[in-house]
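Hello,

Our lab assistant flagged a job as stuck in the queue for most of the afternoon. It eventually completed. Since we weren't sure the result was trustworthy after the delay, we are filing this so someone can double-check. Below is the sequence as submitted and the structure that was eventually returned. Let us know if re-running is recommended.
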Amino acid sequence: MKKLITLAILSIVLSANAQTPKGKVIEGLTLTSKITGYDVNYSIYLPPCYETSQRAYPVVYLLHGYSDDETAWVQFGEVNRTADQAIEQGIIPPMIIIMPNAKVTWYVNNAEGSDCYEDMIFEEFIPQVEKQYRIRSERAFRAVSGLSMGGHGSLVWAIKHPEMFSACAPFSAAVYTNEEMKQHLISGNKSWFEPIYGKLNKDGSLPQHWMDNNVLNILKNTAPETFRNINFYIDCGDDDFLYKGNAALHVLMRDKNIKHEFRIREGAHNWTYWRTNIIHGLSYIGDVFHRK
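-- returned structure --
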């Protein structure tokens, strides 16, 4: 009897999943970049109604973490399943999700200028993909999100290019204070950061390239009105080792009256947290996309 009940429940779940319209995930896509000198791989999620309509859709650029690639948000984060269900239930509007491979660039140009990843994104990648797919290319319908290194990337892109995005939703963002970065460049993860930001100066001060790309520094030294059209949603687990930078970001934004939502949820720096909570970021972005 117990086995029959279990099978019945499983049948109901499978039936419900089968009725949810499925979006389309395309992997193995490539953009040839003259700026970087190498091909940039990316994946894309197209909403269930994309192939049966002629309209253009809002877009979210969803960024992966350190050591992952453009497949991670689908393979480990199951973002396509989350988006399918949320669209079907009316939680979010139909949207396109684009996931570029950033390797370990931290989503910025490196100090030596030998890998200008950020320039490539804004001068080549975004213009090309938004012509190739039916995307509403106005700022009001473009958002950026990501986890860890990708959370950092989403913040850097939104803050350095405020004319490009209407919403930014970083998860477990790799935001470091100057003190933390100094320790990394002295004895911490030097191999992660030196190739991007350069070495400490001879007097022990932080390299200028770090100062120019540190989210906290940029916000501190920029008029808050610059960011008035960006809707920020910041999300971090209570057991996440990146809590200090995220808390500092929240405090700084509060002090400068930069509008944002800040959420601390139960969880750590892992896929269980991101897979479960990405719906909150997509829902927040979806509300921004909706016409008021």
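-- support follow-up --
The delay was a queue issue, not a problem with the job. The result is valid. The chain has eleven helices and eight strands. The radius of gyration is 20 Å.
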